[in-house]
Design a protein that fits this description.
This protein is α/β, with parallel strands linked by helices. It has two domains: 3-158, 3-Layer(aba) Sandwich (Rossmann fold); 210-242. The protein has eleven helices and six strands. The chain has helices spanning 3-20, 32-40, 45-52, 63-70, 77-84, 99-107, 122-128, 151-165, 169-178, 214-232, 250-259, and strands at residues 26-30, 57-62, 87-89, 115-118, 136-140, 143-146. The protein has a six-stranded mixed beta sheet with strand order 3-2-1-4-5-6. Strand 5 (136-140) and strand 6 form a beta hairpin. The radius of gyration is 51 Å and the shape is rod-shaped. Bound molecules: zinc ion. Residues 62-64, 91, 93, 97, 102 line the site of zinc ion. It is found in: Nucleus, Nucleolus. One of its GO terms (cellular component) is small-subunit processome. This is U three protein 23. Involved in rRNA-processing and ribosome biogenesis.
Amino acid sequence: MRQIRSKAYRKLMAMYCTSFGFRQPYQVLVDSEMCETAVSQKIDLLARMESVLVGSVKMMITQCCIHELYIQGKSHQPAVDLAKSFERRKCNHKEAIPGNECIASVMGETNQHRYAVATQSHPLRVNLRAIPGVPIVHINRSVMVLEPASDATLQSKQRAEKDALGPSTSEKAMLNAVTPQVEPVVKRKKAPKGPNPLSVKKKVPKGTVPVTTRVEKADVRSKRKREEADDVDGASVEAQPKPKRRRRHKAASRLAERSN
Ligand SMILES: [Zn+2]
C-alpha cells in the first residue's frame, strides 16, 4: 500500500474512533461475493483488511451470507472454507434472505454495533453511505480500498462537534437547576427629571444680603452709565457720581508748590 493512502486511512480510522466510538479489533461484516473475490484473486483477506483499517480486525459473516455460498455448490468450496473461518453473526432471519438485505438489516439505521462492511455489491455500498459512521471496504482490480467518509458521516461528525462546544447534558441540567433561583432584574426607578442643579440659582435665605454675581455687577455698571447720561441732560444733581480723584505725581506737586 502506498504511503500516502496509508496515511489517509490512518486519519480516517482515527476519525471513526473519535467521532463514532470504533474500537479495535474492528468488526468487519464480509459478504459472500467478497469471499469469492478474495479466493479467485488469491488475496489474504484478513491481512489486507488489517492493513487497510490500520489495526486489528475481527472478520464476521452473517448466516444469510454464508448460506449464499453453501447453495452455490462444490465449486465454491474454497470460498465457503474462508467464510467458515470468520465469526458467525446471528441475523435471526428464519429463511435466508439475499446477503445485501441481510447486511442492511444488521446495520440498521445507525450502525449501533459499529461494524465496518466489506462488500462487492455497489447498491449496498450506496445504501451504506446514507448511514453515518460506516467504514466501507471493497476490492477494485485486486486493490482493497477504504472509501472516504460519506456525506452523512461528515455531517454527523460536524453536528457532534458543534454540540461538544455547547454545554454538556450534565451542565445543561445544572443550568436548569440554577436558572429559576436567579432573582428577576428589578428596574431602578428614575428620579423625576428637573433642571440641571448646576444651572439653577441658589435660593437665598431671607434677611441676608445677596451676593452679587458678575452678571449683576455688569448690570449695575450699565445702570450707572445710563444715570450719568441722564445727568448730562440736566436731571437730578444728587445722583451725580463723585468726581474721580486723580493721583498727582509727587514731582508735579512739588513743581506746583514752587510756582506758588
Ligand atoms: Zn440474515
